[in-house]
Structures
1.
Amino acid sequence: MILDGKAVSAKIIDDLKIELAKKSTKPYLAVILVGDDPASRVYVRNKKKKAEYIGVRADIFEYPANVEESVILEKIDELNDNPEVTAILVQMPLPEHISKEKVICRISPQKDVDCFTPENVGRLTIGMEPYFYPATPQGVLMLLDAYDIPIEGKHAVVIGRSNIVGKPMAQMLLRRNATVTMCHSKTENLEDIIKTADIVVSAVGKKIVRCKMVDKKSVVIDIGIYRDSNGNLTGDVDFEEVEPVVEYITPVPGGVGPMTIASLMYNIVKS
Ligand code: NAP
């Protein structure tokens, strides 16, 4: 069965819109965008558009690539202190002369809808409630829940250990009582480990998961998204050969991508 992230996401977003329409106070999203990376511009514009669709006020604060670090840090201070602003996003990547760590640490954890700050990541790790869960892993769990796919007691293999995807994905699956194995580029016998998984979550950006690694009970979640040599959007899973074999699978595009947006909108409404 194909897990339809597009449909589940659309339903979540429409429910959020209805919920927000009933509220007397609205969230206010502030997005900081530095430089003119075309992909970042598209991401930021899409987030603003979606936020406005559900009734959120959203502003983008744009800076040239050569802006001084202090200007960005002062802007974050101002947004932290502004009681009207409920959610702050800083679009990554930042130019090299700006410290990503300093920027992340400056954001108020109560407005950190990306779950980037050490406080929120720490809370996630020690079993406390973070103010917000990270968008992509939360989106994956929302999708599994939408299809009533059990997580507790299952062996989940997470491939990829980035701070924004792989690591929090593993933490969140652990919190849901999965038995979690984390894999990365130095993992030996990756194929054998994937074969032992009930749930495979791949967040790499390369073709990793093939049909010989899965079976008819496998749940396969493909977070990866990149362009192949022909310029087509693709994921980490060989969809053509894996889809007929497994129980559940996410497509790329139309799987985890739209769920990430829905999950971010959920966080913004929560803010
Ligand atoms: P990243 O920071 O580049 O991390 C990639 C991870 O993959 C690293 O941990 C790396 O291991 C591991 N890796 C690389 N080659 C491997 C191999 N051959 N076998 C096993 N592991 C390998 O990337 P990211 O930001 O986490 O993103 C991963 C993918 O998800 C990308 O395609 C990205 O576009 C996509 N993504 C999608 C969404 C969405 O909403 N759908 C959101 C975020 C990201 P090391 O740590 O050892 O280097």
2.
Amino acid sequence: MNVLVTGGLGFIGSHTCVELLNEGHEVIVVDNLYNSKIEVKNYIENITKKQVKVYIQDVCDKEGMKQIFKENKIDSVIHFAGYKAVGESVAKPLMYYENNLISTFSLCEAMLEAECYNLVFSSSATVYGTPERTPIDENCRLGPTTNPYGTTKLFIEQILTDLQFANSKLNIALLRYFNPVGAHESGLLGEDPKGIPNNLMPYIVKVASKELEKLHVFGNDYDTHDGTGVRDYIHVVDLAKGHLCALNKLNTEKIGIDCYNVGTGVGYSVLDMVRAFEKENNLEVPFVIDPRRPGDVATCYSNPDKSCKELGFKAMKTIEDMVRDSWKFVENS
Ligand code: UD1
């Protein structure tokens, strides 16, 4: 199958390209390198020993997208491209709404013109806002979201729902990711955020490498087993495989549009992650306890039953794999 991957040189996109190529699919990437590097193309090719066709182009460029569909017979699309920094989205909401929504419009128009109907959309557990209950299942209330980034994901889910209603040939899987961490076991692909990281795992690795002095643990007075926040961390290679399960579903069944949690169903605290990282990598991660971060919830983890039953997806990697591979990528960079 020929799969177009928007944002295919980014963190989750690049890992998904590897899994697609390993399964024998042809991969066409469109990426504007806003948050990625062209070298990632070579890393993907080195790992898989296969070629990937890359267009350096903005997905917002509608005519450019139509041209990609004219030049390639595309069977399915996985749409990762988008801005994703929560803090930046609060400071620059228009930039987030413009980029994330316009790119989706332009992609969808090009898809419809080319009569390409299978789409996997990279959504997020952020659409649940402050969760109604945990574990979070797909029937939990959506929103209110807590930042413009999250709102773009929620809006896009709604827009795709309306579009599918109007164009019943569209077959769309919305994947709601929990907290992606880890890296490819080769050490070649991983997460490399610009500036001081906001997310836990990129921050931990920068403390371990002594680029940052210590980790600030945001609160130890939550109602959790050790007082620190609990999240559903999922290894990015597992997450990438989830996309193949979703594609497989779309190619064998007409689902219309449906949503699936992609998590492990297991919650780990901040201190669980720190301890696992220290133990597995034999490194120290000094930390201090700071006040709670505004907007954080105590506990957020998935009920993964629907993706297990309907997509045949199950995360296989352990917390040790996550912390080891995260470090290997940084050591290798
Ligand atoms: C955030 C985003 C989510 C996004 C995800 C990507 C919000 C509300 N949610 O989730 O939309 O998809 O990142 O992975 O922003 N922590 C520390 N110290 C740090 C960093 C984090 O103690 O320096 C703690 C947090 O308080 C939290 C846990 O680590 O308990 C995870 O935080 P983080 O990695 O930022 O992810 P989320 O906030 O869960």
